[in-house]
Description:
Layout: E1 7-10, E2 16-17, H1 19-23, E3 31-33, E4 38-40, E5 44-47, H2 62-68, E6 85-89, E7 104-108, H3 109-115, H4 138-146, H5 161-169
Amino acid sequence: MLYQDVAQAVDHEYRTFDFASWSALVPSEEAIGLVSTAIRVPRVILLRAYDRLPRRHVRFSRHNVFLRDHNRCQYCGRQLPRVELNLDHVMPRSRGGASVWENVVCSCHRCNRVKGGRTPAEAGMRLLREPFRPQWTPFMAEAYRQRRHDAWIPFLSGSGYGALEASQSH
């Protein structure tokens, strides 16, 4: 995006750079190798134009259900590796239950066998949390949990300059 002039790089002093001026800077320890040189990794970019809001639709998939439920069985509460989890239809498919966000939860193999083709109430089980359609992009949420670059802090919601100063003074 920087090379195509769709965005500008922003440095730690909030100065903006086009591709030519950014690539003229001395590369830091984090660099991207190009054919004939290397440039700094731009950690913050500024879009030159913004024409629409990003889509808020989160695709229903096995991976995204695991992310929504944090790899936690929604019956017994154990957090397990994904190979030890299933997707369970709260209202069983055999009774017309659909494969949609609001009817599918993470469950461990044991809880899935115990519940079988029954509803949780019929099986004497209780859901920890009702299934829901997420309003976030799971991949971004996952990325934010794993690692935040210091350069992002002033731009993340609820973490403006004042919040940053307050957190560093305590």
